[in-house]
Every structure is written in structure tokens, then in C-alpha cells.
């Protein structure tokens, strides 16, 4: 039988739904570089060309008519992705708070992730070929929970390195206080 204290937590331990994650007035959200749109557009175009090219080969050389429909569907999805790419990139942002880093992304399906500084185990900077050409980098965090990995894409290289150094410093301070 559960303890009555477990069923009714003390008043100070209760969290009202409106108090759980206050996103208004907590600070200034930082966005990724506008150049990151080009990285995403190049990736989308390369994917579309490869899949449409493969579908075309199947249709023309092997006379597979279903491949024509697959190629057209992928072409349509690629065009739709290209239209929404700038808005999707603008939705990516992060906020450094007192105890954690808050990350957001998404237009229709929004995702907010809070990563406590003391739980960060690894902070990694990666650069793809197009991003490197544009002077951009991705900052990836690994925490104890494998499913809580967060990546902030499209940061200027200098910003990524300074943010990495700041987060490593904060993580060491928080872990030392545990």
C-alpha cells in the first residue's frame, strides 16, 4: 500500500503545469547562423538528385514504371522541403539558463530539450564539408541518458568553440558541486 506522503506531496514539491517550463521572459534565444539554410538546401538537393536519378535509371533502363512514380513523389517532396527549409532553420535556437541549456527546433512539431550542465559528459564539434566551407559547425552534447543527445547545428565556428568552452566550464562546476 503506498505511503500517504507519496500520494500527497508537500505543497512546496508540487509543480503546476504552467510553472514547469517558463519560456517567456527567461532570456534571449540565440539562433543558428542564416548561412545554415544553404547547408540544408544543399543536403536536400543532393538527396533529391540521388533518389530521382536512381528512379530514372530503373524506369529508363529496366522499364520499371513504379520507379517513375517514386521519382516524381521524391521530386515533389524535395521541392516542398526546399520551400520550408528557411523557416525550419529559423526555428532552431538555444538559450543558456542558470542551471541548464534549453534547445528548441521544429515548426509543426516543436521540440524543447533542457540539458542540465552537470549532466553533460561530452561536448563535441563536428563540421561537414559544406558547413566547413561556410565556416559553420555543429555542437553535440552527450549526457548520461543516451536518448537525450542534443545537437545545435549551424553555429559559426568561433561561436561553437566559445560555447563549447563555456559549457565545459559550467559542466565541471556543476559536477564538482554534486
Keywords:
alpha+beta; 7 strands; single chain; 178 residues; three-stranded antiparallel β-sheet; elongated; 5 helices
Note down, in words, how this protein is organized:
- It is a single chain.
- The chain is built from 5 helices and 7 strands, in the order αβααββββαββα.
- 47% of the residues lie in helices and 22% in strands.
- The chain has helices at 4-7, 36-62, 65-90, 129-134, 157-176, and strands spanning 30-31, 93-96, 100-105, 111-116, 120-126, 136-143, 150-156.
- The protein is an alpha+beta fold and 178 residues long.
- The radius of gyration is 22 Å and the shape is elongated.
Brief characterization of the structure:
The chain is an alpha+beta fold and 178 residues long. The protein is 47% helix and 22% strand.
Amino acid at each position: 500500500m503506498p505511503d500517504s506522503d507519496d500520494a500527497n506531496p508537500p505543497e512546496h514539491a508540487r509543480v503546476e503545469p504552467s510553472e514547469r517550463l517558463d519560456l517567456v521572459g527567461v532570456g534571449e534565444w540565440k539562433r543558428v547562423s542564416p548561412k545554415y539554410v544553404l547547408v540544408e538546401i544543399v543536403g536536400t538537393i543532393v538527396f533529391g538528385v540521388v533518389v530521382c536519378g536512381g528512379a530514372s535509371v530503373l524506369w529508363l533502363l529496366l522499364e520499371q514504371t513504379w520507379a517513375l512514380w517514386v521519382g516524381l513523389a521524391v521530386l515533389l517532396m524535395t521541392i516542398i522541403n526546399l520551400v520550408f527549409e528557411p523557416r525550419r532553420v529559423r526555428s532552431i535556437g538555444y538559450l543558456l539558463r542558470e542551471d541548464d541549456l534549453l534547445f528548441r527546433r521544429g515548426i509543426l512539431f516543436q521540440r524543447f530539450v533542457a540539458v542540465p550542465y552537470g549532466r553533460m559528459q561530452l561536448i563535441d564539434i563536428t563540421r561537414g564539408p559544406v558547413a566547413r566551407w561556410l565556416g559553420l559547425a555543429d555542437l553535440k552534447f552527450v549526457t548520461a541518458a543516451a536518448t537525450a543527445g542534443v545537437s545545435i547545428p549551424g553555429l559559426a565556428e568561433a561561436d561553437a568553440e566559445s560555447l563549447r568552452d563555456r559549457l565545459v566550464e559550467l559542466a565541471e562546476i556543476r559536477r564538482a558541486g554534486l
